[in-house]
Predict the structure of Diadenylate cyclase.
Amino acid sequence: MQDFLNLTVNTIKNISVWSVLDILVVAFIFYKGYMLIKETRAEQLLKGIILIVALIPISYVLRLNMLYVILSKTITIGVLTIVIIFQPEIRRALEHLGRTAFDDIHPIQDKEELGKVINEIVNAVESLSKSKTGALIAIEQSTGLGEVIQTGTKIDGIVSSAILENIFVVNTPLHDGATIIRENRITASGCVLPLTGNGEINKKLGTRHRAGIGISEVSDAIIVIVSEETGTISLAINGRLTRNYDKEKLRTVLTKVIESKQNRRVKTAGERVKTWIKKLAKGNK
């Protein structure tokens, strides 16, 4: 016991600030990694991997040679298998990291102009909801939706409730698909969105809602959905769907979410400018 205490004390004495920082960084990475896979298929896989890793030393100590060999080989081959099977989750995680690191590359919109755009969207959605006309509108944020835009018909028109309502009129060429809004422009309509692979969502939700959730899982776009059957207004953000919005609630949430992203980009950009100024000042000394 004394030897153990001495070893513990010596270890604590030898810990430097950099060692503590190293531990904190690694812990943060593991925490963020877990949050990315939480409530996904990858979470169950992680539990299985932990179980296998725990069984390997146990089987070695108990001299269960066959079990030890099987588990060891499973870990070796498993890495490649994980990359292949969980490619969508890995891609989503990397895209999330990319959004976090570079979410200030898009221009900042004027608040008055942003308010007008939101107002036009809300008025159109309210009208579509009353007439039970299905609609799917994706409002681009930091993550570019260029690949999605290529699947539809380019419009490049101002955001207006009249245009949005006409786009989604049943049996018109562009109604069956998503309309993409970039800044203050309707960029394209009739776009094809990726469907969600989440098997836990309500089975009653149709393709329109699944597509809205799907694109929100791989981007930070805000998706407005109007149900063709009930006229219910829904929002999909970061892979989560919330329903039963009215006009005022929709306007409030859109304004709050978009402005919070804008403010974060302004803050990040401001901090970078300050850093550049400091570097220039040091260089001129």
The first helix runs from residue 2 to 13. Strands lie at 135-139, 153-158, 178-182, 185-191, 222-226, 233-237, 240-242.
